[in-house]
Amino acid sequence: MINNEEFHDEIGNNHISTNAKNPVRKDAFAITDEEKIEKIKKDVENILLTLGMDLTDDSLKGTPNRVAKMFVKEIFGGLNPDKKPKASTFENNYKYGEMLVEKNITVYSTCEHHLLPIIGRAHVAYISSGRVIGLSKMNRIVEHYAKRPQVQERLTMQIVQELQQALGTEDVACVIDAKHLCVNSRGIKDIESSTVTSEFGGKFKDPQIKREFLDYIKLDTNF
User: I need a surface site. Which of 44, 100, 123, 183 has the fewest CB within 10 A?
Assistant: First the structure.
């Protein structure tokens, strides 16, 4: 019979998500960013000391503080709802009714199972139903949801759901092709493999429109 520790290791090592939303506690923002940095700084210091590192060395003295600031301000900054980009939309006055594709959006995220990087590209598309969104906003939405402990499936869905809400249409699609360093640098250590996830809404569920989108991003994958 599998015990709890083995069960949780099995979930993490196989990169299984157990929640469609990021599992954030209700009191996640009860303290300030500065207070979080101070707490994390002490934790990182303890980790390094436990590993046997000499924190009196000039190269390591600032590491706990740097890591803490990086966690709170940068790579996990997307957890804070106050940092969510404003998804301003505009009337589609020029009546453009075809697919709009923003491809090769850089994705830097962090696997929530091992806290190692996920690095890849997102390809996002929508068909306007009366509203359009600035191109840079699509990049910022990807960046916002990527900057948190993540699983790639959830990230793909969150990008689509955010754009659907902003644009008032179901006709949104996203494909992400990314490398997971928890696979590439540890465990199986397969440096060549990457993971592809997709979410197709509305008209993008139509095989012809889906194929057109995949042709645009030159991804030869059967969905």
Answer: 100
